[in-house]
UniProtKB/TrEMBL annotation:
Protein name: FAD-dependent oxidoreductase 2 FAD-binding domain-containing protein
Pfam (any one): FAD_binding_2
Taxonomic lineage of the native organism: Bacteria, Bacillati, Actinomycetota, Actinomycetes, Mycobacteriales
Listed cofactors: FAD
FAD-dependent oxidoreductase 2 FAD-binding domain mapped to chain residues: 2-429
One biological process term in Gene Ontology: steroid metabolic process
SUPFAM superfamilies associated with the record: FAD/NAD(P)-binding domain (SSF51905), Succinate dehydrogenase/fumarate reductase flavoprotein, catalytic domain (SSF56425)
Keyword set, alphabetical order: FAD, Flavoprotein, Oxidoreductase
Keyword Flavoprotein: yes
Matching PANTHER family: 3-OXOSTEROID 1-DEHYDROGENASE, FUMARATE REDUCTASE
Organism expressing this protein natively: Rhodococcus wratislaviensis NBRC 100605
Coiled coil: none
Length: 449
């Protein structure tokens, strides 16, 4: 198992539960990768939390939403596999320490489907159970190469250590769960040069090693043209605090440094990320009033306005003019923008940018007229890449012609195909978990056969 994020840890523990002996190799000196930095939102349907809130969801609606967000470019076989196992995986995660509390509608969803859990607690539970089950974890073990038997089957890995190197053989196969390449400047230069202007984020180990290793063996690649950062994180976002605010889904608008709106803010935050990169300074400023401010959810990622005001990243003013001066945009332009927007909300005019809802077709627009007013300047953050090597529905890597590369599996952000053109919030963690379990099942059945 190469990589210790959600995909690697779920695959590792599931494989142990299937009776396999598993070695988990992690390049950095800490476990968890981007998964440990994440908001902890998992997308599932048909859950207890949805039932408790009267939310009627179905696999059919989930399928439609995934394909709609993905612009119908998704690998349908992977989406169907995901939907077949998502409910079972949700229950498995609950049985392994996930406590889904908050339920929310998020980017790309037509219904509340994002379930929040304390992700670092979940990851450490998975690790504890993996070790209790006889698994072996090694930190600072960077896998640099895949080895193959004479018949071409992937049979092991070469590892670089702080003081040398070594080789491990793998009877049931090698699983690449090495995450994306949001930190991989060389790969970004090839596949998404425009994203070099975004703020690099995600785990420091996510430089695309797994993608390169599989690519070298002829693996196919999917969704490579759809790398997009997410909007909006403050320009001074730090490494240890996940800062991304989506006040626009609560009722805020986003303006550029000229004080003008430039896009429909109800779109998914990766589409917004691409739009914001085109603005001067790569900056989009979220503007809202006391109504939206009152919807802050302390401790809830994407909605915790309190925490961002406490650290001085959200600015407050009694009037729009004063607010504009604080964030250095022309006051007249901002006033005019908000006046026009309020006319849209009041039904006096239709929005020239096409906004009709708060988020993805859901929720009525609300006026921005109740002081005090607030501003959150934010940029596009490249947290993830969501594209990569092709796999089949059993989690085996396929080559450029679609043939399986024997002995090589992949799960999580290193893989492409599932999301298509864009990502629905919560589906990266849930996809990593679902395919991690699928891989364990495939590997165990191949050993038994
Ligand atoms: C700030 C932030 C918030 C997010 N919020 C959400 C959210 O709420 N919901 C959601 O679904 N998604 C979210 N995402 C995206 C999601 O977290 C990731 O896409 C997902 O966690 C990836 O999981 P993974 O297991 O594939 O990879 P990771 O969790 O990134 O793990 C990959 C691991 O592999 C290791 N590795 C890399 N190369 C090697 C090598 N050569 N040898 C050994 N180890 C190696 C890395 O060091 C890393 O630890 C967020 C991402 C970020 C950055």
């Amino acid at each position: 198992m190469v990589g210790s994020g959600i995909a690697g840890q779920v695959a590792a523990l599931s494989a142990v539960e299937h009776g396999l002996s598993v070695l988990l190799l992690e390049k950095t000196d800490r476990l968890g990768g981007s998964s440990a930095m994440s908001g902890g939102w998992f997308a599932f349907s048909g859950t207890d939390e949805q039932a408790a809130k009267g939310v009627r969801d179905s696999c059919g609606q989930f399928f439609d939403d995934l394909l709609s967000v993905g612009n119908q470019e998704n690998d349908v076989a992977l989406v169907e596999t995901f939907l077949t196992y998502q409910s079972d995986t949700y229950n498995w995660l609950k049985g392994h320490g996930a406590k889904f509390g908050e339920l929310s509608i998020s980017s790309g969803q037509s219904i509340s489907r994002s379930h929040l859990t304390a992700i670092t607690t979940l990851l450490s539970n998975l690790q504890d159970r993996f070790l209790e089950g006889g698994g072996d974890t090694r930190l600072e073990h960077r896998v640099t190469r895949l080895t193959r038997d004479p018949d071409g089957r992937v049979s092991g890995v070469v590892v670089e250590l702080p003081d040398g190197g070594c080789e491990f053989r793998a009877r049931a196969g090698v699983v690449l769960a090495t995450g994306g390449f949001s930190r991989g400047t060389d790969l970004l230069k090839i596949f998404a040069p425009e994203q070099l202007a975004a703020m690099p984020y995600g785990a420091t180990g996510n430089t695309g090693d797994g993608l390169r290793m599989a690519w070298k063996l002829g693996a196919g690649l999917a969704d490579m043209s759809h790398v997009s950062g997410s909007y909006g994180s403050h320009p001074e976002t730090g490494e240890d605090f996940h800062e991304l605010l989506t006040a626009y889904y609560l009722g805020a608008v986003v303006v550029n440094q000229a004080g003008r709106r430039f896009t429909d803010e109800s779109q998914d935050y990766k589409t917004l990320g691409a739009e914001v990169l085109k603005q001067s300074g790569g900056l989009g400023i979220q503007i809202f009033d006391s109504r939206v401010r009152a919807m802050s959810r302390p401790g809830v990622p994407l909605k915790d306005i309190d925490a961002l005001e406490d650290i001085g990243h959200v600015h407050r003013a009694r009037s729009l003019r004063e607010l504009a001066e604080i964030v250095r945009i022309p006051p007249e332009a901002l006033q005019e923008t908000i006046d026009r927007y309020n006319e849209v909300v009041s039904g006096i005019r239709s929005d020239e940018l096409g906004r009709k809802s708060l988020c993805n077709g859901v929720g009525d627009l609300i006026l921005i007229d109740a002081p005090p007013f607030f501003a959150y300047p934010a940029r596009t953050l490249l947290t993830t890449t969501y594209c990569g090597i092709t796999i089949n529905p059993q989690g085996l890597v396929t080559d450029v012609d679609g043939a399986v590369i024997d002995g090589l599996f992949a799960a999580g952000e290193v893989t492409g195909g599932f999301h298509g053109a864009a990502y629905m919030t919560g589906t990266s963690l849930s996809k990593g978990a679902v395919f991690g379990r699928v891989i364990a099942q495939t590997a165990a059945s191949q050993i038994d056969a």
